[in-house]
Design a protein that fits this description.
Blueprint: H1 12-21, E1 27-30, E2 38-41, H2 42-60, E3 67-71, H3 76-87, E4 91-94, H4 101-111, E5 115-119, H5 123-126, E6 138-142, E7 156-159, H6 160-164, E8 181-186, E9 196-200, H7 201-211, E10 224-227, H8 234-237, H9 239-246, E11 249-252, H10 259-269, E12 273-276, H11 278-290, E13 300-304, H12 310-318, E14 323-328, E15 335-338, H13 347-354, E16 358-359, E17 364-369, E18 384-390, E19 418-426, E20 431-437, E21 442-444, E22 447-449, H14 451-459, E23 464-474, E24 478-487, H15 495-503, E25 514-517, H16 531-539, E26 546-547
Parallel strand pairs: 1-11, 3-4, 3-5, 4-8, 5-6, 6-7, 10-11, 10-12, 12-13, 13-14, 24-25
Antiparallel strand pairs: 1-2, 8-9, 14-15, 16-20, 17-18, 18-19, 19-20, 21-22, 23-24, 25-26
Helix pairs in contact: 1-2, 1-3, 1-9, 2-3, 7-9, 10-11
Bound molecules: adenosine-5'-diphosphate.
């Protein structure tokens, strides 16, 4: 028997229309580095998004399914693109501006982007690539930046503001199928070639509702979210869409992502929420330790994308800022888990829950698969690879303009679940603790050592700024951990001292023998520890390693 309910498609268009009317007064504030930031209301953004859609259709002939790329910082024009492009039935393709040039070329060609919207300040990055991007017909430049390098290139160049001028404020938004592509994002390639994930209108809509649930970020129109996580990193974790649903104000850093301007932004604009990867919070902590600032407006901070060291959480607790740990991936839109503790606990009882990756929402089903392919119990002890499925989880990767979507065996199970490549345990009450990425686990004499556990323990040392641990080949054990450590300024601790410190919380057989001090941990394009690079440096003999007895 079928239901009697209306079958209304879940569309990004609806989120746009809702945000620009019901929450028309909410604002996007973009940092400019000048005396005043730039402010634009949701109503204005909606109107300008409508003009942008008109321009894309009338000037460039953009049709449903065409890919329109953005190479932009987090700012209000980028939000306009977020709504204009999917609402007209085209596909928003956010480009990661930190990728190596050859990967960017690969991605733009693979997606066959027709138009690129670019911030003027990023032209030095785009211009050298353009001769290698045959599908790109139009470049639209937004904001300040020298445009002279574009002269003489075989591409039509437009100014964003001029393009919008005189356009109609209405658009006959098409009736789309909710399963149509709305946006795409390539994985950052931390562990392989970038692969395209294509989000549907439906997946974005449902994911936005989840972001807004109290068990996730749970913000309202009374909040301002400092969106540090880039709009090219899994749709800024869904925030631009979620904010238009409930009127949450956004504070956008544009290109001012360094610790000092971030600290100033927080003190001046007083956001109640922020979202960023651990590296950002490490940097900000060092900044406010040296130059104290009031960060206490931030009632809640969402931290994820890489494991949050418990010592970092503690340090922010002391500053009156509560970090809430979240796990996700490009393939999961990204919201997978969030670490809100169960109700009714004391602060002390909450702590073990807060340092997990968190609990799954109803929309995300999870299972753990052991090395022999069997499903493992949720007992907090049995470690296996995490597999997930749900309405905002990828079921395949984009196969290119003429190719079919593809499902590599190492990424999707035979019954269609996403293999996350993350290894961990789940407690009986559904809290996920990740011990490692499958590729980063250290296999020592048939036992597994968690690189993340060693890193967290090291980063709890008062003289350690950052630490990354990787597996290196060992004649006797197969693999052993190599600890690479960034010391704080003026630190006096030696390797023996660090090992003794680790021995307080780590089993003896897991303690690293190999140590090296480095200036900084190499980072990926989205700010995660780049262990590939460290392993290669070690293999090339580029690290000055001390081996303890
Ligand atoms: P890439 O896979 O290219 O690095 P993603 O941003 O999709 O790009 O990364 C997803 C991965 O990041 C996850 O599979 C996981 O390994 C890691 N990750 C994300 N959040 C967390 C977290 N809270 N704790 C530990 N690891 C995390």
């Amino acid at each position: 028997m079928l239901s009697t309910m209306q079958d209304v498609p879940l569309l990004v268009t609806r989120i746009l229309q809702h945000g620009m009317t019901i929450h028309g007064k909410s604002q996007v504030t973009t940092w400019t580095g000048e005396a005043e930031p730039h402010r634009r209301s949701f109503a204005e953004i909606g109107t300008r998004a409508t003009r942008l859609a008109n321009a894309l259709r009338d000037e460039f002939g953009v049709q449903q399914g065409d890919r329109v790329a953005t190479l932009m910082w987090n700012n209000s024009e980028h939000v306009e693109a977020y709504f204009a492009i999917p609402s007209m039935g085209a596909v928003l393709h956010t480009l990661n501006l930190r990728l190596p040039p050859e990967q960017l070329v690969f991605i733009v060609n693979h997606a066959a982007d027709r138009v690129v919207l670019v911030n003027g300040t990023l032209l030095p990055l785009l211009v050298p690539l353009l001769p290698h991007l045959p599908t790109v017909e139009h470049v639209v430049v937004a904001g300040i930046g020298d445009r002279s390098a574009l002269e003489g290139l075989d591409v039509r160049v437009h100014d964003y503001e001029e393009l919008l001028e005189g356009r109609s404020d209405s658009y006959d938004w098409p009736d789309l199928d909710e399963r149509q592509a709305a946006a795409m994002c390539y994985t950052s390639g931390t562990t392989g070639d970038p692969k395209g994930v294509v989000y549907s209108h439906r997946s974005i809509y449902l994911h936005s509702m989840q972001v807004n649930m109290a068990e996730s970020m749970g913000l309202t129109a009374a909040d301002t979210s400092l969106v540090v996580v880039p709009q090219f990193h899994v749709n800024a974790w869904g925030l631009p869409h979620a904010t238009f649903m409930t009127g949450i104000n956004m504070l956008m850093p544009d290109r001012f992502l360094q610790p000092a301007p971030l600290a100033e932004m927080i003190e001046r604009e007083k956001p109640s929420h922020a979202a960023a990867v651990p590296t950002i919070w490490q940097g900000l902590l060092a900044e406010v330790t040296a130059n104290p600032r009031d960060l206490t407006s931030m009632k809640q901070v969402t931290i994820g994308g890489a494991a949050c060291p418990p010592s970092l959480m503690e340090a922010y607790d002391k500053l009156g800022v509560r970090l809430c740990h979240a796990w996700g991936m490009t393939e999961t839109s990204p919201l997978g888990t969030m670490a809100h503790p169960p109700a009714g606990l004391t602060a002390e009882e909450e702590w073990p829950y807060r340092i997990t990756q968190g609990r799954f929402p109803a929309g995300v089903e999870a299972r753990l698969v052991g090395p022999d392919g069997s499903f493992l119990p949720w007992d907090g002890e049995s470690a296996g690879e995490l597999e997930v499925r749900g309405t905002w989880i990828a079921g395949a990767y984009y196969g290119g303009a003429s190719g079919e979507p593809f499902r590599p065996e190492d990424k999707f199970s035979a019954d269609g679940w996403l293999k996350t490549g993350d290894v961990g345990v789940i407690s009986s009450d559904g809290y996920l603790t990740l011990t490692d990425r499958a590729k980063d686990v250290i296999k020592s004499g048939g036992e597994w050592i968690s690189s993340v556990e060693l890193e967290n323990a090291l980063m709890a040392h008062p003289e350690v700024a950052e630490a990354a641990v990787v597996a290196v080949p060992d004649d006797k054990w197969g693999e052993r951990p190599l600890a690479t450590v960034v010391l704080k300024e003026g630190a006096t601790v030696d390797y023996e001292g660090l090992r003794a410190f680790l021995a307080q919380s780590i089993a003896k057989w897991q303690l690293p023998e190999r140590w090296t001090v480095i200036a900084s941990v190499p980072k990926t394009s989205v700010g995660k520890f780049d262990k590939k690079v460290i392993r290669k440096q070690y293999a090339d003999g580029a690290l000055d390693v001390t081996k303890l007895d």
